[in-house]
Amino acid sequence: MTHRTLFRRPVALALGAVLALSVAAGCGSDDDDASSEEQFCAAGQSLESDVASLASLDVVAAGTDGLGESIDAVKADLADLRESGAEVASSEIEALETAVDDLDSSFGELGDDITAANATAVVAAITAVGTSASAVYDVLSSTCE
What we know:
Layout: H1 2-25, H2 36-56, H3 59-110, H4 116-143
C-alpha cells in the first residue's frame, strides 16, 4: 500500500502544478450570449476541474467507484468540448480522448485484484491524461481570454 501511495503523490503533485498554471491562464468572455466559444470555455473549465479531481483522487478512500466516476466526468467534459469547439482544438481533444480511453482500459483491467503492475498502469495513464489535458489547456488559454 505504501508503494502505491508513493506513486500517487508525485503524480498528483505534478498534475496539480500543471493545473494551477493553466487555471491562472483563465477562460471567460464578456458576452452574455452562450456562444460556442463560451460553451467551449465553460467545458474547458469543467475539464480542468475534473482532471484536477482525478489527479488528486484518493483511490483508497474513493474506491474504484470513485475512480470510475472521475473518468466518466472527464469523458463528459470531452464530449462537451468536442461539441462546442472541435474545430478549435480537434487534434488536442483527440489526443486527450485517446489518453482517457487508455486510462479507462487500464481501469477496466484493475478488476477485483489490484496488483502493483495494474495500479502502476493506472497511475501512468492518469499522468498521460494530465499531459494531454495540458495541450487542451494551452488552446483554452489562447482562445478563452
